[in-house]
Amino acid sequence: MTEARSEIHYRKGRRSDCGILAELIGMAAGGTVDYLFHDLIEGMTPVQVVAHNLARNHDPHGYENAIVAVKGDSVVGMALAFPAHRHGITEEMEAFFPAQRLDHMRAFFSARVEGSWFLDALGVAPAHQRQGIGRHLIERVRQQALERGYRALSLIVFADNEPALALYRTIGFRTVREVPLEGNDWIPHRGGCLLMVCDLDA
Fold first, then answer.
1. pTM of the model
2. What are phi and psi of 10, to 5 degrees?
3. Cα(106)–Cα(109) distance, rounded to whole angstroms?
4. Does pLDDT of 4 surpass 70?
5. How far apart are CA 66 and CA 54, in angstroms?
6. Which domain holds residue 20?
7. 6-50 pLDDT, tens per residue?
8. What CATH number has the domain bearing residue 143?
9. What Å distances lie between residue 155 and 42, 46, 80, 106, CA to CA?
10. What count of other Cβ atoms lies within 10 Å of the Cβ of residue 181?
11. What is the largest CA-CA distance in the chain?
């Protein structure tokens, strides 16, 4: 286990990472990416649309906001984080997504801990899970937040995602409030989401 971890190094995201970043974001999103982006652009899958958006590198959902875990020449994990006030529905989103889809997720996009650094997505490739990569990525996001003057790290997780909840709680995250989000054919989760926060020590 220690040997596997020692082979991993971490760096800032690059434009060439966008394809795998989008795959990991799609995996981590628990169906919300598929729900929002399906059938929106002819000939493009939801992951391809996300990859295209990442490559535009528009803050906050740009590849430069990602921290990646690399083994050999392959990206095996990622974390995307930015100021919590940037988590929300923008005018661009209102114009792009069908209103019904945004309305379904409006409570999700309205949930935030003001003044915190927001961990928007955390994903590790299945073959590389349970090797401590997720924990190491969170530690790097924590350092990123501290360097920018933030004293709290926040995230949203599905309430039925027990492995993720166990990890976040051992790190020090606590639940701030429940966030309603009904499951559907695209989002195979029940019980909504939890908004969590972790206070950061310098």
1. 0.93
2. -125, 145
3. 5
4. no
5. 10
6. 2-199
7. 589 999 999 999 999 999 999 999 999 999 999 999 999 999 999
8. 3.40.630.30
9. 32, 22, 11, 16
10. 23
11. 49
